[in-house]
Amino acid sequence: MADWAIATTCKDRVEVVLAFVAHHLEAGAGEIHLFFDDPEDPAMDWVAGCARVVAYRCDAAHWARLPSGRPERHQRRQGENAAMAKAATACSWIGHIDIDEFLDGPRALSEVLDDVAPEAEALRLYPLERIFTQVPPREGVVFEGAFKRRMSKRLARRLFGDRGDLLHRGFQGHANGKTFLRSGSAAKLHIHNARLPGGERVAYAETEAAHLLHFFPFGYPAWREKFSRRLQVPGTLESLNAREQAKFQLYAAAEAEGEQAVWDLFLELSCFDKRRQRRLWAAGGLYAPALDLRAAVGRVFGPEAPVPAAVPAPERIGWLTRILGW
Which of 66, 53, 67 is nearest to 10 (CA)? Predict the structure, then answer.
């Protein structure tokens, strides 16, 4: 049966990192290569001793292997770290995913990889994007929720109105998927694909039997930070296509109005009331995985490991829940 590894450059809350590691260890990962972008990340103390986890402290010594040192853009750092993990892995496959992406599906990934045709060097896994089915707290990490599948423009418009035109396949995050590559391939792993030394893409297989649960976002603070951080990086907007620019400008306009406008935009884009859930379900686009991340963290790291508090039942959230019908 095929063995597989994952490579991830991470900078997130300890609860997220532990959930990511616990989930993928229990999913059968042969190796988890975690590159801590912050060399003082407290999550390192939790994962460093885990079997099948290789933790890298991305300090000056780590980046000294590159002639130019630490890359300024995080995408370049991700790519260099993925190349390092690919060179080091003993597994026959390696995937490059983010810390908020969790492998899932009706079949074990090892079985799916076994079925990939020999002529295909890579397997593409498509994402499902997280939605909140009740109003979450304004602070912290939230494990509860469901996921939406990639959707048509027509359904995106039904769910989001005119703003659905700004969401590629109805997603705030990427809809392109991520790559698992045969570790013996000459190709290099990039953010969403793999390319051979000449620049051409490798031969791909695709599957519906495995996918990525993209926790975009893990909560309101994570959602806000993703948009604001990218807007602060010089050249970000200019590097995006017109639709993506308009999406970021939508956030920037809300931020200019103040905190309540940002929160209202978050509710509009990330939180689904019962009416929108029914529409999504009727279109076959609602997915509720059988995940218990708190239990997985407890099994792997013990009862003292940090996990987010459970979100209270909808009827206890207050007036906004009642008005929205959640």
Answer: 53
Report the C-alpha gap between 115 and 107 in whole angstroms: 11
3-state helix, strand, coil in the chain (%, to 5): 40, 20, 40
Asked if 305 contacts 20 with a C-beta cutoff of 8 angstroms, the reply is no
Amino acid at 85: A
The token pair that represents 71 in the structure block: 């890359």
pLDDT digits (tens, 9 = 90+) for 43-95: 999 998 899 999 999 999 999 999 889 999 888 999 999 999 999 999 999 99
In the three-class reduction of DSSP (H, G, I as helix; E, B as strand; rest coil), residue 139 is classed as coil
Distance CA 149, CA 116 (A): 23
Cα separation, 7 vs 160, in Å, equals 34
> Which ranges of 204-258 does DSSP label H, i.e. alpha helix?
220-232, 242-257
Q: Using CA atoms, how far apart are residues 35 and 123, in angstroms rounded to an integer?
A: 23
Confidence of residue 313 (pLDDT cuts 50, 70, 90): low
Residue 202: closest CA among 306, 116, 296: 116
